[in-house]
Amino acid sequence: MARVFVYGTLKKGQPNYKHMINTAKGLAKFQGRGRTVEKYPLVIAGKYNIPYMLNIPGTGHHIAGEIYSVDEQMLQFLDEFEGCPDMYQRTLMRIQVVEWEEKGGAGEGRAAANGILECFVYSTATYPPEWVGLPYYDNYDSSGKHGLSYVLRESR
């Protein structure tokens, strides 16, 4: 099992969360909420209003999201879904645990107890330079005040 931190459309209540709970694509177990230890720019870009975490450590905000434990099948699905490695790159980042669901699992409990976990995150280093000038967010919501609703793939 691998740990993945999701900050955009795959979070609970967001347009692509359905994929996280579709066991035909693999297993994803919600473990808790967190935020990036380092600051990053989170922008909403392109004609489909897609959230992107730009891989520029030290700029932007501590990004809020959800921590999942996923099996190899789900990790492969997420790689394909996220267009990895062209659109997004899957990298390990340090995530500060804000809220932890998992009660058992001594190793995981200890990792959460000291507050920081290493998780895979889909961020991008391949983006148009003008994206750096877009507004930065710390918590993505497709129906947020920004008015930039995400366009589902099946509607494109």
Automatic annotation (TrEMBL):
<dbReference type="Pfam" id="PF06094">
    <property type="entry name" value="GGACT"/>
</dbReference>
<feature type="domain" description="Gamma-glutamylcyclotransferase AIG2-like">
    <location>
        <begin position="4"/>
        <end position="122"/>
    </location>
</feature>
<dbReference type="GO" id="GO:0005829">
    <property type="term" value="C:cytosol"/>
</dbReference>
<comment type="similarity">
    <text>Belongs to the gamma-glutamylcyclotransferase family.</text>
</comment>
<feature type="active site" description="Proton acceptor">
    <location>
        <position position="82"/>
    </location>
</feature>
<keyword id="KW-0456">Lyase</keyword>
<protein>
    <recommendedName>
        <fullName>Gamma-glutamylaminecyclotransferase</fullName>
        <ecNumber>4.3.2.8</ecNumber>
    </recommendedName>
</protein>
<keyword id="KW-0808">Transferase</keyword>
<dbReference type="GO" id="GO:0016740">
    <property type="term" value="F:transferase activity"/>
</dbReference>
<comment type="function">
    <text>Catalyzes the formation of 5-oxo-L-proline from L-gamma-glutamyl-L-epsilon-lysine.</text>
</comment>
<dbReference type="InterPro" id="IPR013024">
    <property type="entry name" value="GGCT-like"/>
</dbReference>
<dbReference type="GO" id="GO:0042219">
    <property type="term" value="P:modified amino acid catabolic process"/>
</dbReference>
<dbReference type="InterPro" id="IPR036568">
    <property type="entry name" value="GGCT-like_sf"/>
</dbReference>
<dbReference type="InterPro" id="IPR039126">
    <property type="entry name" value="GGACT"/>
</dbReference>
<dbReference type="GO" id="GO:0061929">
    <property type="term" value="F:gamma-glutamylaminecyclotransferase activity"/>
</dbReference>
<dbReference type="InterPro" id="IPR009288">
    <property type="entry name" value="AIG2-like_dom"/>
</dbReference>
